[in-house]
Fold this protein.
Amino acid sequence: MTMVGEQGDALRRIAEALERISPAAAPAPDVNAADAFVWHVAPDHLHPVPQVNRVALDLLVGIGRARDTLLNNTLQFAKGLPANNALLWGARGMGKSSLVKAVHARALELEPLSVLKLVEIQREDLPSIGRLMGHLRSSKARFILFCDDLSFSHDDQHYKSLKAVLDGGVEGRPENVVLYATSNRRHLMPRDMIENERSSAISPSEAVEEKVSLSDRFGLWLGFHPCDQDEYLAMIEGYCAAYGVRIEPARLRAEAIEWQATRGSRSGRVAWQFFTDLAGREGVQI
């Protein structure tokens, strides 16, 4: 075999070896597999969720204005009309993530012909959001990207990945994608971190602007605040009516107030935890 032939044979074997060790191209996601998905990386893929863990929209008490605003925005989006990214911020346990999932379900009921999908992405996977957008951009479906409990620490650079796809970049956010995020913080970072930027940076105003500009990219800011006792009791009464738990009103009130006193707070989450305990004691499946 000539030198040229030996070199050609060696190159062919190298090429074959590289083909064997290189991963196959990821198939296009099947968006018809479910109405909801979870985005996973390594390898990138959309994992279908056959049954979403959510409560009915009518059971979310005390957040009427946020509910109506987010539902209207979602219906506009489902119809192919302009819609805003939404940041749901505020008190913990007041139904922020539950509202996103419930609104998606209600939008599917009201717009049955729309192909509206819910895609959950974890905060730690935000650096891959550009690749996810690439998968979704060419689809005929419309996607709500859902990032739950979104927040950033002082040395966290993930927010830059998100900023680039919300409004910035050459391509920008695809027309068929909108982002809904929940956070306990209005500006997605601790207040003491913002104050530290003001006090220690060479150019304080520029440093703070860099940090809080991400939240400005959400057209809707929906605030959630701690509920009062009447709202807390109304939540529990709604659960009892929906799941058929029959209990004397005075006893229900007394036990519910005692439960929230032991927890030291009132919220939708505390109301649901009390109702779960009550349903178990009453022998009712939920």
Notes: Residues 3-21 form the longest helix (19 residues). The chain is about 45% helix and 15% strand.
